[in-house]
Amino acid sequence: MRFTEFKNIVLIESQTAGINDLTASRSISELDTIIAASSQLPPEAESIKSKIATNLIAVKEKIAATIQKLMSTGQAVVKEPEPVEQPEEPEEVEQPAPVAQEPIEPVEQPIQQKPVAEQVQGDIEYDALIASCEELKQQIAEIEALTMPEKVKAQLLATIKKSLDSNLKLLEKYTTVVDELKISNQKLKAAEDFINNVNDLLVTLGNKVQGYVEVSPQEYQTASAKAKKDI
Q1: E strands along the chain, which residues?
Q2: Is 103 within the bounds of a domain?
Q3: Domain ranges, residue 198
Q4: Does residue 193 lie in a domain region?
Q5: How far is CA 44 from CA 38, 41, 68, in A?
Q6: DSSP per residue over the chain, as a string?
Q7: How many CB atoms lie within 10 A of CB 86?
Q8: Can you give the pLDDT at residue 170?
Q9: What is the count of structural domains for the chain?
Q10: pLDDT tens across 57-114, in order?
Q11: Is residue 117 part of a domain?
């Protein structure tokens, strides 16, 4: 088997797994950005909080139904937890006898008033948005923990990512926090490019070890029928 064929079986799966991890990290970053940006919305944009929360709940329920179907057909399996080695019990060390102390009279503490901010009723819409974001984070962690084809996992994560992107656009009109997300995405994109470059390098080195030479499209077109079979 030629190394490039082996790559299609093994390396692409590994590459997809790496990209899935980056997509999950990017989605977590976007959820944090949504929480931060929503806290800075002006009064006229308060309704966006409940709209985003509704959108996130909808995508979470859609993904949950898909996962349930995958598990019922055996396409997704919960990973078995790795056994944890129990530490050896330490030897008992004889403790010195306690020294009797005189009782200390309790000191009355003055009653402290809660800050005014804590006395004000919370923002119900914002609390619901935070809850939906945290639930979606948990779902992303569950997806990563499942054993399933990386291609299927990529589709699930892409569905979540698409929803987050559309919800972020709702916030871009009112906040500037999204700039922080761009910096985070640039770092994740650099990591993604690194994975792709490493995989390409492994293929090139493997071909050299196996004695295969990469052929350009022009060279392939001018090659004979017999030569094409060997390429």
Answers
A1: 77-78, 146-147
A2: no
A3: 3-79+124-230
A4: yes
A5: 12, 8, 39
A6: --HHHHIIIIIHHHHHHHHHHHHHHHHHHHHHHHHHHHTT--GGGTHHHHHHHHHHHHHHHHHHHHHHHHHHTTSSEEPPPPPPPPPPPPPP-PPPPPPP-PPPPP-PPPPPPPPHHHHSPP-HHHHHHHHHHHHHHHHHHHHHHEE--HHHHHHHHHHHHHHHHHHHHHHHTT-STHHHHHHHHHHHHHHHHHHHHHHHHHHHHHHHHHT-----HHHHHHS-HHHHHH-
A7: 6
A8: 87
A9: 1
A10: 999 999 999 999 999 999 889 876 666 676 777 677 676 666 666 666 665 655 454 4
A11: no
CA pair distance 59, 163, nearest whole angstrom: 7
- Region for residue 121 given its phi and psi (left: phi exceeds 0; alpha: psi -120 to 50; beta: otherwise): beta
Closest CA to 71 of 10, 15, 152, 14: 152
CB-based contact 212:2 (threshold 8 Å): yes
pLDDT at 64: 96
Other Cβ atoms closer than 10 A to 126: 17
CA distance linking residue 231 with residue 211, whole number of Å: 12
One-letter amino acid for residue 36 of the chain? A
Per-residue pLDDT tens over the stretch 119-150: 334 589 999 999 999 999 999 999 999 999 98
CB atoms within 10 A of CB 139: 20
Token duo for residue 135: 């639930």
**Is residue 142 one of the residues assigned to a domain?**
yes
Whole-number Å distance between alpha carbons of 66 and 64: 5
What distances in angstroms separate CA 65 from CA 62, 71, 139, one per listed residue? Answer: 5, 10, 12
